[in-house]
Amino acid sequence: MSDVFTGNKEAILLFIANQTDPDKKWDISEHKEKRKRSLDSNSYFWVLVNKIAEHQKISDTEVHDQFLSENICYFYNSEGAFDWKTSPREPNRYGLIREHSIDGYNYWLFAGYKVKLQKEDGTVCKDPDGNEITSNVYWHIKGSHQMDSAQMSRLITSVVYEAQNLGIETATPDELADMQRLWEQRYGKKHNAD
């Protein structure tokens, strides 16, 4: 299995400089991010998140996490199954944990169950008191910055509905359609959901 590292020029040079095996070979290729939707749609999402947070007197993060947990878009692994991991961390009230990544955050949604951790030989891991160690299972889900246009449209529809129910001014359907048209003119046809 080969190591994969993504970063800018300085990060890659630092990564390679810190490698200790002088015989190890590296392939370098340009990583091009696909623009999946307009930055305007994400900006609009965050404007409404901020307004809802102010109205409800809670943080932007709480409102954001609430909408992510209600509009779930999963990441899939190379075999086509949900990407997942175990973690001892407890989720927030919306079932999420977040981790820093190169482009912001990765989000993980609590799957609703725990598993016993095992060693390579199949024996169950135990703590110093002899108790079996369990860990939460989390599904890897997309943050708003990682969604394609169809997924983001669904997220915006949800946040607009909530804002309107709270009496918060939102864009008209025509303004929303204009945002979508602008994106399509700049970046091509609408992407399908993953």
Strand pairing plus helix content: what structural class?
alpha+beta
**Rounded mean pLDDT score:** 83
Which segments are poorly predicted (pLDDT under 50) over 5 or more consecutive residues? 190-194
Number of strands: 4
| Biggest pleated sheet | 4 strands, antiparallel
Q: How much β-strand is present in the residues?
A: 15-25%
> SSE order in H/E notation?
HHHEEEEHH
Helix content: 25-40%
Using the alpha-carbon principal axes, give the shape.
globular
Rg calculated over all Cα atoms? 21 Å
Terminal Cα span? 26 Å
- The tally of domains stands at 1
Number of helices: 5
Strand order of the largest sheet: 1-4-3-2
Outline the fold blueprint.
Elements (H helix, E strand, L loop, with lengths): L8 H9 L21 H18 L3 H11 L13 E4 L8 E6 L2 E13 L17 E8 L7 H17 L7 H15 L7
Antiparallel strand pairs: 1-4, 2-3, 3-4
Helix pairs in contact: 2-3, 2-4
Structure description:
- The chain has 194 residues and is an alpha+beta fold.
- 36% of the residues lie in helices and 16% in strands.
- It has one domain.
- The protein has a four-stranded antiparallel sheet with strand order 1-4-3-2, covered by helices on one side.
Key structural traits:
single chain; alpha+beta
Summarize the structure.
By secondary structure, the protein is α+β, with helices and mostly antiparallel strands. It has one domain. It has helices at 9-17, 39-56, 60-70, 149-165, 173-187, and strands spanning 84-87, 96-101, 104-116, 134-141.
